Amino acid sequence: MEGYHKEGAASIPTGQPSGSIFSNRIVLAIMSSNLLLQLGIWIRNFAILLYVTDITNNNPVYVSLISVVEFAPIFIFSFIGGTFADRWKPKLTMVWCDMLSAVSIGLVLLALVFGSWQAIFLATLVSAILSQFSMPSAMKLLKQHVPGEQLQSVMAMFQSLMAIFMVIGPVIGTLVYQKYGIYVSIGVMGAMFLLSGLVLMFLPRDVEKEESEVENNFKKELADGFRYVMSKKVLKSMGSVFAFCGLAVGLISPLAIFVTMEKLEMPKEFLQWLLMANGAGMLLGGGIVMAFSKKISPQKLLALGIFASMLFTIGVGWSTSVVLTIVLQVLNGMFFPCIHIGINTIILKYTDEAFIGRVNGVLNPLFMGTMVIGMSVSGLVKVPLTLSGVYSLSGVLFLIGAFLVVPLFKVKEEGPALSMSEKPPLV
């Protein structure tokens, strides 16, 4: 572990053109792929949700199973996928994942045609599993080909795209299902994955690297990934931040419908307007952060976003005004990109390229695991604490997360990290 005691930024790509990120073919290809995938995923999410509720007469077990098959792969495959992403060629990994997803969706469509409607869950399960291999590979490519000073702006672009689909995704998914039905919806999803794979083929060839005995020892790479995170002050602190924020998000996620009905005394369908307000705020916030990203460190950006989430979460939990709640949702959405962009930029800046997949594989399950724990107990604590009390508790957890980021303000932002060949092996 002594080999990784040095704090500071991971190696930043050098010799790269520092022009507009829009002229970077790697960024454009990954962005185009992500756009197609977002379209397919939102159509999938709403088509499957509406189809399952229709065919099972709103059976809560089957409806909840949709979330299970979407989030379970993150626990099971996130670290494994991240480790393999560090071993495999990133372009090849991403292309194969999209192509295999498209093939699996085709098989699901065949199963649906022949009457096995339960196979529809495989459409989510397989693509969720494969995303745990392709997502860290995309991060690795960005690490290789994007200059360090542009990483935060690139993360802001991805955040903005996600925000756009949070606004338009539910509408598109619902329209496609209602107009064309489940077969066309699943078919469109498969086509989007196929097109994404074709777009990624235009990426430059993967950099060849020499094989070694160390690289072929998968168990050692798994252990090295955990040790690497524990040896880095920044990454170890990020793990604590992920845990507290995940628990905070999980506590309130299932309760949004009760804010609509109990606090605002509106029908449950009104929830879509709160979600759209949040998405609109995210879109606006992503643009603002992208414009000012070079003027603030990712640590401060992250702390600002978490602190704002604390304020607005507590506000939503106590508000009984429709207008005020919508305004708070917009503001909460505006500051969410600070969290998303700050996290991804910190991970890219302070992680060596060879460990990016494994670092993501360690940190992401921390967030998802605590989030699911929060979701599991939110209904239980709602009665004794009241709805406002649960939102206040979530706000306190966000506040703790913000305080955990503050010590990282003084961490050296730039500086040459030792190359992998210069570092002694982990022991």
CATH class of the largest domain: Mainly Alpha
Summed up, the helix count is 12
CATH topology of the largest domain: Growth Hormone, Chain: A
Low-confidence sequence ranges: 1-18, 413-427
Q: What amount of the residues lies in strands?
A: under 5%
Number of strand segments? 0
Could you explain how this protein is built, in words?
With 427 residues, the chain is mainly α. It folds into 2 domains: 21-205, Growth Hormone, Chain: A (Up-down Bundle); 226-411, Growth Hormone, Chain: A. It contains 12 helices and no strands. It has helices at 25-56, 60-87, 90-113, 120-145, 151-200, 218-231, 233-252, 256-263, 271-292, 298-318, 322-349, 356-405. It is globular, with a radius of gyration of 22 Å.
Task: Give a nutshell description of this structure.
This protein has 427 residues and is mostly helical.
Question: What tags apply to this protein structure?
Answer:
mainly alpha; Growth Hormone, Chain: A; 2 domains; 12 helices; globular; disordered C terminus
What does the secondary structure layout of this molecule look like, with pairings?
Blueprint (H helix, E strand, L loop, with lengths): L24 H32 L3 H28 L2 H24 L6 H26 L5 H50 L17 H14 L1 H20 L3 H8 L7 H22 L5 H21 L3 H28 L6 H50 L22
